[in-house]
Amino acid sequence: MEDRRPPLLVAVCLLVLVEALAFVGLAIAWLVDLLRGDVEIPGAVVFLVVFALGIAALLAAAARGLWNGRRWARSPVITWQVLLVVMAIGWLGVEISVWAVAVLVVALAVGVGLLLPPVVAATTSSAAPPTQAEEPVVRPAGRPTRPAGQRKRPGGTR
């Protein structure tokens, strides 16, 4: 079986990984400042480090999900891109900078890339093996079955 991912999906995954690495870099920079004692509010910096690492982990997991053709991975990635576009537009409203333009371009590229037909098709295929929840439930003979979510009522009858 030949593994052929659309080039657009490869590009989207790489850009999402670049975003994840950028957040790891931010977390490291904030951690270095914290350890040097160059911060005024240490609690806020600790939060920023944990938050940046959490976003990096989420983006890395989503990139892996996209790479494996998982449908769920599109949602966190597109949500993050929308937030990045809003932040970049806010930054550009204050001052035009290379970083704000770069964030805007990458976020738009990833967002548009996720919505293009080859990427959507690659992340919605049902070629994955069935999960445990999709397998039929086999019960021993003679035991009554109830619809999911219903319990036996006290007293023995319904």
Features:
transmembrane helix; 158 residues; DUF2568 domain-containing protein; mainly alpha; membrane; transmembrane; extended; single chain; 64% helix
What does this structure look like?
The chain is an all-alpha fold and 158 residues long. It has one domain. The chain has five helices and no strands. The longest helix has 30 residues, at 7-36. The radius of gyration is 23 Å and the shape is extended. The chain starts with 6 loop residues before the first helix and ends in a 36-residue tail after the last helix. This is DUF2568 domain-containing protein. Keywords: Membrane, Transmembrane, Transmembrane helix. Residues 149-158 have a biased composition (Basic residues).
List the helices and strands and how they pair.
Layout: H1 7-36, H2 42-67, H3 74-94, H4 98-115, H5 117-122
Helix pairs in contact: 1-2, 1-4, 3-4
Question: Briefly, what is this?
Answer:
This protein is mainly α and 158 residues long. It is built from five helices and no strands. Helices cover 64% and strands 0% of the residues.
Give the N-to-C terminal Cα separation.
53 Å
H/E element order: HHHHH
Number of E-state strands: 0
Domain count: the total is 1
Q: What is the strand content?
A: under 5%
Low-confidence segments: none
Mean model confidence by pLDDT: 87
Q: Helical percent range?
A: 55-70%
Global geometry: extended
As a whole number of angstroms, the C-alpha radius of gyration is 23 Å
Major β-sheet annotation:
none
Count of alpha and pi helical runs: 5
Structural class estimated from helices and strands = mainly alpha
Protein name: DUF2568 domain-containing protein
Biased composition (Basic residues): 149-158
Region (Disordered): 125-158
Transmembrane segments: 7-32, 44-63, 75-92, 98-116
